[in-house]
Amino acid sequence: MNNTTANPPYIEFDRVGLRYGRGEEVLSDISFSLPTGSFNVITGPSGAGKTSLLKLLYLHMRPSRGLISLFGDDVSLLDRSAIPSLKRRMGVVLQDFSLINHLSVFDNVGLPLRVIGKNVQTYQDDLISLLKWVGLSERIHARPSTLSGGEKQRAAIARAIIGKPDILIADEPTGNIDPVMGARLFRLFTELNRLGTTIIIATHDKDLIPDEAHVFDLNAGTLTKERSS
Amino acid sequence: MSAAQKNMHVPGPILPKDKKGDRQLFIVMAILAFLATLTLLAVKTSYQMSARWSSDLENTVSIQIKPDAQGNSVQSTETARDILVKFSGVDRVEILPEARSKALLEPWLGSVELPADLPLPILLDVSLAPGYTLDVEALSAAFKQAGLRADIDDHSRWRKEIKRSTRTARILALLSLTLVVIAVISAVIFAVRAGVVQHRLVVDVLHQVGANMNYTARVFSLRFALSGLKAGLAGSIGALFVLWLLTLLSSFGGGILLPLLEINLSDIYFALATPLAMAVIGGLSAQRTVRNILLREIYP
């Protein structure tokens, strides 16, 4: 655990293990805690278990063993009905972007607000401002299939942060874009972090990791190193 | 803000239009709605007819006065009428003329001239006051005491037959309706499962952005409720059209081959109940199916 900050831990993993079906553990004895407002990067080679670790973080899966605490709540004790509200406190950017193809960029990005019953009139201006901020103001009506990789990535990020989440989780956000766009994205993450969002990014692109980040090395399902960049 | 941006007030549907799948489900549900509407209207008509027949039979009694040993039935008939008019609940007594008695025999004997000395029974048509039933045993005793030979038919046997037939028709109709409802539910469940597989990304993304189960289920249930409503309307309008054709046919035949049919306002109300029921069944089935899928696959 990195206790160099005075902020209380937002996320704690205690000897967490994960296996798919009856197979071997893909994650073993993962323990760490992430303080509020921290910038965290999980690195490691392909197949190290980064995506699986993130899936546990954003409650896509439950661990086979160990304890996960989110915002002070033990995840294993959570009722199903409590999961959506926890998920709304997390913005997630997946490797494949997961944009809905028949919806415009506007509708994709507005989805987190729509599902909590907000009227489009109440968030339209904020959404347009956000799209300007991520550089998609000219692509508001576009369908995801017409966007470039970088544009899709930024649309996915906009969707992840439109609800002002406490945590932003991104899985290989630079995997499908060129280095220039990658650097730009990381600047975006740094800016979000500066605004108070806890950032957790899984990447194998170590060159882009900002200086202030806490870096976790994951290898063959085991956390091997934890350091400040 | 530009004019183009101002036009973005209506978000697109979360589920895309699935024209092919929608069309197939629409056809199946419309056929089921057609059958359900016809069944409903048949049940309603059979209830009305049964009630009318029973009512007619309940208020009348037929009495057949047999000729006495000398073959004379006129005096016996007068005596029977005198007894009847004093009887509790009897409103009116009509002695059917001999011509009517002969007419009743025509289907068996043909229109031949009957011998004048052939003793014919005399029929009395007795109307009862509303709410009264005839005490057949007391009337039989009174006739016997007066030396009359008479058959009294209070139509109870026919009323029982009608009730039995109506009950059978009702059971068959309910069975048909139950089968239709089961078929609708099965079709919707099948379509919803296919829809969830087809739109799995939408389900996953909704879950990911924090939609609760009811929201996701509602996205699907509204779609299927709307499909049910549209298909139900098409099916019930089709059923009313067929009924209208049958009405035309029955009017051409003068009610000989087909009973005289008619469409009234209550039939239209009944027919309109079908699309509403289809919408409710479609929506609820979809809601439940999606919730089950989410519980099984999304919420580990």
Compose a concise summary of this entry.
Chain A has 229 residues and is α/β, with parallel strands linked by helices. Chain A has a single domain (11-227), classed as P-loop containing nucleotide triphosphate hydrolases (Rossmann fold), CATH 3.40.50.300. Chain A has helices spanning 50-57, 83-87, 105-114, 120-133, 149-161, 179-194; strands at residues 9-19, 25-35, 39-43, 65-70, 73-74, 90-93, 167-171, 198-202, 214-219, 222-228.
Instruction: Count up the domains of chain A.
Output: 1
| Most extensive contact | A-B, 35 and 26 residues
Arrangement of strands in the largest sheet of chain A:
6-7-8-3-9-10
Structural class of chain A: alpha/beta
Question: Approximately how much beta-strand content do the residues of chain B carry?
Answer: 5-15%
Could you give the order of the helices and strands of chain B? HHEHEHEHEHHHH
- The ordered H/E elements of chain A are EEEHEEHEHHHEHEEE
Q: What is the general shape of chain A?
A: globular
Considering DSSP H and I runs of 4 or more, what fraction of the residues of chain B is helical?
55-70%
Describe the structure.
The complex is a heterodimer of chains A (229) and B (300). In chain A, β7, α6 and β8 (198-202) form a beta-alpha-beta unit. The longest helix of chain A is centred in the last third of the chain and has 16 residues, at 179-194. Chain A has helices at residues 50-57, 83-87, 105-114, 120-133, 149-161, 179-194, and strands spanning 9-19, 25-35, 39-43, 65-70, 73-74, 90-93, 167-171, 198-202, 214-219, 222-228. Chain A has one domain: Rossmann fold. Chain A is of the alpha/beta class and 229 residues long. In chain A, α3 (105-114) crosses α4 (120-133) and α3 (105-114) runs parallel beside α5 (149-161). Helices cover 29% and strands 27% of the residues of chain A. Chain B has 300 residues and is an alpha+beta fold. Chain B has 9 helices and 4 strands, in the order ααβαβαβαβαααα. Chain B has a 4-stranded antiparallel sheet. The model of chain B has no long low-confidence stretch (mean pLDDT 82). The chains are: A alpha/beta (229), B alpha+beta (300). Chain A binds chain B through residues 58, 60-62, 80-81, 83-85, 87-88, 92, 94, 98, 100, 102-104, 106-107, 110-112, 114-116, 120-121, 124-125, 128, 140-141, 159, 163, and chain B through 1, 4-5, 8-12, 14, 16, 201-202, 204-213, 215, 295, 299-300.
